[in-house]
Design goal:
Elements: E1 3-8, H1 12-22, E2 26-32, H2 40-57, E3 61-63, H3 68-75, H4 86-105, E4 110-113, H5 123-137, E5 140-141, H6 151-162, H7 173-176
Parallel strand pairs: 1-2, 1-4, 2-3, 4-5
């Protein structure tokens, strides 16, 4: 029997190859929790694409609360940080903390995120945050760097095949600048 994995999904395109590769070893459930995404229309556009991936791969998709105010509180004081700086680490932490909490409270064996598929995100930082939260919540973290072995390229190809919208910024107001 496969272990039950809660996968934080930032968008549909990032979920494509990631979900497909994890399904080999895990019973995957996707969690779309992204209070950082701005504007609201963009949030729902990305959620719609995650729904397409969910349907295509027959993987359940949950939606976390959309609470941009919570995200703004979390990154307060770090608004002017460069992309990849402390603001981004705080954002990763917020989203992964909610994923870990939900996973633990709902009987999952482990959790991880699609974010490591992005060539613009530091997988080492994401994995360090994930490991720390796993320890705190007493649940397993699945260490990953999904961009390796052509993972990012495969996600782009799968996105094209599925006709998915691919955004051109991480999601927050500051990355959109």
């Amino acid at each position: 029997m496969k272990k039950k994995l809660l996968l934080h999904v930032c968008c549909g395109p990032c979920g494509t190859h990631t979900v497909k590769s994890l399904m080999e070893d895990y019973d995957v459930v996707m969690l779309y929790y992204n209070p950082n995404v701005h504007p609201t229309g963009e949030y729902y556009k990305r959620y719609k694409e995650a729904q397409k991936v969910s349907a295509e791969l027959s993987v359940p998709l949950l939606e976390g609360a959309y609470s941009p105010e919570q995200w703004l509180d979390e990154i307060q004081g770090f608004e002017e940080e460069p992309e990849g700086g402390r603001r981004c680490s705080l954002c990763f932490g917020l989203r992964l903390a909610e994923t870990a909490r939900y996973a633990k409270e709902n009987g999952f064996d482990a959790f991880t995120t699609t974010m490591t598929i992005s060539p613009h995100k530091d997988s080492k930082v994401i994995n360090e945050i994930g490991e720390s939260l796993a320890s705190k919540h007493r649940i397993s973290w699945v260490h990953s760097d999904f961009k390796k072995n052509d993972g990012f390229r495969k996600s782009v190809e799968m996105s094209k095949d599925l006709g998915l919208y691919r955004q051109d910024y991480c999601g927050c107001f500051y990355s959109r600048k």
